[in-house]
Amino acid sequence: MEDLINEISTKSTIVEIDDQHRAVLDFGQHSAAKGYLTWRELTHLLDYQSHRPLRHWRRFDEEQVVEATRAAFSRRDEPAKALAHLHALPGLAVPAASAVLAWTDPDHYGAIDQHAWRTLHRFGLVQSCAPGAGLRQQDFVTFTDICRTVSTRLDRPAHWVDLWLDTRARMENGRWH
Questions:
Q1: In whole angstroms, how far apart are CA 25 and each of 44, 103, 175?
Q2: Other C-beta atoms within 10 Å of 121: how many?
Q3: How far apart are alpha carbons 79 and 54 in whole angstroms?
Q4: Cβ neighbours of residue 50 under 8 Å, at least 6 residues apart?
Q5: Using CB atoms within 10 A of its CB, is residue 175 exposed (0-12), middle (13-18) or buried (19+)?
Q6: CB 80 within 8 A of CB 94
Q7: Is CB count within 10 Å lower at the N or C end of the chain?
Q8: How many alpha carbons fall within 13 Å on the CB side of residue 44?
Q9: How far is the CA of 168 from the CAs of 12, 85, 107, 165, 172, in angstroms?
Q10: What is the pLDDT of residues 113-156, one digit of tens each?
Q11: Within 38-157, where are the H helices?
């Protein structure tokens, strides 16, 4: 963990939050302030995250979305349960569900993805899913614990830590996706 914290401390400028990302964060936090998201709000966040066709999320109905997001947002201190409520929506994978949590509560959650996971693997902080494919709910709990530990030590939001991990992996691979 110390190696990761030291590297983040010395290379913190690799994270840039552009205007579009800032707008999504502002939208997510503002929308979640009422304690839940509507279908339209959720699909707006998901569209930014994955750009999958809207048909993938037409299976959600308004009541499901409100119920799932309300339950998830009430579990801030229980990442596994928060994620499980969102992941229960049809077709909503762990990375997408974690992104919703990160955009609505960036101080406490990071968005897990294969790039950030590979960085943690390279630092020896995680053992499973070396390439970052097939991330599970338990992986999200581990990821959240690491992001929260680093964020506390460096006085940064957990979502900023996930952005750093993601950026570091992309830079290491020599390409941007």
A1: 12, 5, 25
A2: 17
A3: 27
A4: 96
A5: exposed
A6: no
A7: C
A8: 18
A9: 10, 30, 20, 5, 6
A10: 999 999 999 999 998 876 667 899 999 999 999 999 999 999 99
A11: 39-50, 62-73, 79-87, 94-104, 114-122, 137-154
